[in-house]
Structure formats: structure tokens, C-alpha cells
Amino acid sequence: MYSRAELSKIKQEFWTAFGLYMKPVPSADGGRVNWQNYKTGVKQVFFRMRAETDFVSIGIEINHADIELQELFFGQFEAFKKMLHEDLGESWDWKLHDVDEWGKTISKIEKILPGPSVMKKEDWSEIISFLKPRIIALDHFWSKVKPGFEEG
Fold first, then answer.
1. How far apart are CA 91 and CA 84, in angstroms?
2. In the chain, N or C terminus with fewer CB closer than 10 Å?
3. Is the separation of the CB atoms in 56 and 130 below 8 Å?
């Protein structure tokens, strides 16, 4: 078992390494992007990457406090589901009204890879190999559909 401080330190080291690895990769629009802290530019819509002790995940999280708005945004993503899965080259899990670790109702579209541990540096290449093509594909997808999500 790891202490909270150990876990935090190693996760910080991983995300720093991931950021350095991804730094030369331009966004779909050709600009610079902070891959490990991707900004969608749309309130309450996030691209989340997690590297934990027993899994890695990447996904789209919608956390509007207004459940009806959350459902509306989720529905907008559903309208683009085929395009998203084509850009990703795989299907992801869709969860309307899931509950996060703090008990808040969220909706998410995600892919989980069980097994690799961020605490094992020998797993980092597997974690990066999982996250890199998917965050790049999400960025490519988002560059096409973002205008449909922006408040007008």
C-alpha cells in the first residue's frame, strides 16, 4: 500500500513525463496544447485521463449540476457517436448519470484499461501507449464538433 504522499508524488512524476512526451505533438488545429490538462473550452465538459494503481482511463466527462443540461450535452455527443468511434477506431462505454468518487452525478464516455499501475515505472510506456492515440483522436474529433457545443 502506498501513502497518499507517495501516490501523489509518483502521479505528478508520471504526468510531467507524459506532458514532456506529448509536448511536440500539435493539436488537430496545428496549435500548442497542454495534453495532460486538455481544455475543451466548453464549461462543464472535460477530457479526463486517469492513471491509477490498477487501471488507466480516458474519457469525456460532462458534469453540469443541472441534470437537464447534462442530458442535453450527452445527447449532443450521442448524435456524434459514430464519428467519435470512427475517430477513436474503437467503441467506448457511454454512461448517462453515473456517480463520481465524490457522489456527484456526472455523465461520461470512456475507455478503461485494467491492469497497468502508475506506481510501476515499467508500466508507464503501456500507459502512455494507451493514452496518447486516444487523446490525439479526441482532439481531432473535438476540432470538428466543438462549435456545436459552444454557447451562442
1. 8
2. C
3. yes
